[in-house]
Design goal:
Elements lengths: L1 H19 L9 H26 L4 E4 L3 E3 L4 E9 L1 H6 L5 E8 L2 E9 L4 E6 L4 E3 L2 E3 L11 E4 L9 H12 L4 E3 L4 H9 L5 E4 L4 H13 L3 E4 L6 H4 L2 E4 L1 H11 L5 H4 L1
Parallel strand pairs: 1-3, 9-10, 9-11
Antiparallel strand pairs: 1-2, 3-4, 4-5, 5-6, 6-7, 7-8, 11-13, 12-13
Helix pairs in contact: 1-2, 5-6
Bound molecules: D-MYO-inositol-1-phosphate and calcium ion (CA) (2 copies).
């Protein structure tokens, strides 16, 4: 199933790359640009679905663009372009994310960065690979010297005050905080030890289903922002090696309110 997901990710990557290279030659209004990219998202998702459906006609699918397609106990969770804003601006950080769940449990995750030709793959119980190399989370023991990833609120500003409090408390003690713009890749980077930890509010399942399995399979921890297991329900998530994860959690807890944990 990893092989099929990899094939699907490569197919979607071809769609993204073909159009990425054309973006600066086409003259767009903002709205036109947006519609064009939505179309690219849609075509890339369809390319993934065609490959999955051909091999597994009965599996269910949840795609960011086409929504929920019912099926059996297996469900593919797809983000055909994670980092749309970056893609639109020619900022070279975006990815394709494909996960497979069986009866709700994550089994497979594939995240592909076509610009760097980095294919991150995982399946439950067998670790994480980047191309042919085995990955582990970092061994950093505290926030001291840690590099963290995050996502700044950009559409939903209800929790900006809470978020700013978290940022303020975390940034004082780390080596730095990055906002790369593709949550799926942020998780892959935690699995690779490039980031020691990550947190974001308001993610969707397709942003981090593959990434969550990857971080766990690389020896890390993924929880919701109160340290529980409701991250896919709330979209509020912390990931990291176990020590850094716990340190992030401790700094975040004072900034929570009922709206964030409900
Ligand atoms: C977004 C990216 C971004 C994160 C947003 C997501 P999209 O996904 O993952 O890093 O901060 O919350 O919505 O819209 O580019 O697929
Ligand atoms: Ca996304
Ligand atoms: Ca997307």
């Amino acid at each position: 199933m990893v092989t099929i997901a990899v094939r699907a990710a490569r197919d979607a990557a071809r769609v993204l790359m073909r159009n990425y290279n054309r973006l600066d030659t086409l003259n767009f209004t903002d709205k036109g640009m947006h519609d064009y990219v939505s179309e690219v998202d849609r075509i890339a998702e369809q390319a993934i679905i065609d490959i999955l459906r051909d091999k597994y006609p009965n599996h269910a699918i949840l795609g960011e663009e086409s929504g929920s397609h019912p099926g059996d106990d297996y469900q593919w969770v797809i983000d055909p372009l994670d980092g749309t804003t970056n893609y639109l601006h020619g900022f070279p950080q975006f990815s394709i994310s494909i996960a497979l769940r069986h009866k709700g449990r994550l089994e497979v995750g594939v995240i592909y960065d076509p610009l760097n030709e980095e294919m991150f793959t995982t399946s439950r119980g067998s670790g994480v690979q980047l191309n042919d190399r085995r990955l582990r989370v970092s061994s950093r023991k505290s926030l001291d010297g840690a590099l963290l990833g995050t996502g700044l609120p950009y559409r939903d500003f209800r929790f900006t005050e809470n978020y700013m409090g978290m940022l303020k408390d975390l940034m004082a003690d780390t080596a730095g905080i990055r906002r790369p713009g593709s949550a799926a890749l942020d998780f892959a980077y935690v699995a690779a030890g490039r980031l020691d930890g990550f947190w974001e509010l308001g993610l969707a399942e397709w942003d981090f289903a593959a990434g969550a399995l990857m971080v766990r399979e690389a020896g890390g921890l993924v929880t919701d922002i109160s340290g529980g297991e409701r991250h896919f329900e709330t979209g509020n998530v912390i990931a990291g090696n176990i020590k850094v994860h716990n340190a992030i959690l401790r700094r975040i807890l004072p900034h929570l309110d009922d709206r964030l944990t409900a």
